[in-house]
Amino acid sequence: MKKIVILQFFSLFLAAGVMAAGEEVDCSKISEAKSARLNDVVARYMRIYGEPCAIFQVLNPRNSWEVISTKTVCSFGGKSFETDFADAHFEDVSFSSRGAHLTLSFTPLEGTGEQEVKCFVPIEGGEIDAMVCESTTTH
Asked: Residue 119: which of 60, 56, 57, 59 has the closest Cα?
């Protein structure tokens, strides 16, 4: 059983090499990754070292781990993680049968301190919807 799990886990990261529309992910630069089976597909969350965005993907394990869809999250509230925040990162990423749950922690450029917001990325079948978030908590 361990060999099968290890091979499946390794296959998920080999499949990370190609994203939709021919955009490639350098597997050696993945700094964080989580995945879970959601019914007939596998959902995956990835962060690339040095990049502010989070990448969500849905893979088809029955078709050579084909990437069915990809959504890159690089902004919140109409503001870019790269240019409109001093810092933005994701924490506590987990999956349920409906999608990905996570906490977005960010620091605005103006000196208001770090803030956190609970977010959800709906995933149904092969489709990934836009991230939705609750009210903000300031630290």
From this structure: 56
Which of 103, 109, 101 is closest to 80 using CA atoms? 109
Measured distance CA(113)–CA(138) in Å, rounded = 7
Separation of alpha carbons 68 and 84, rounded Å: 31
Query: Residue 43's closest CA among 128, 137, 104?
Result: 128
- Indicate the pTM of the whole model: 0.80
* pLDDT tens column, 45-99: 999 998 999 999 999 999 999 999 999 999 999 999 999 999 999 999 999 999 9
CA-nearest of 90, 82, 95 to 32 is 90
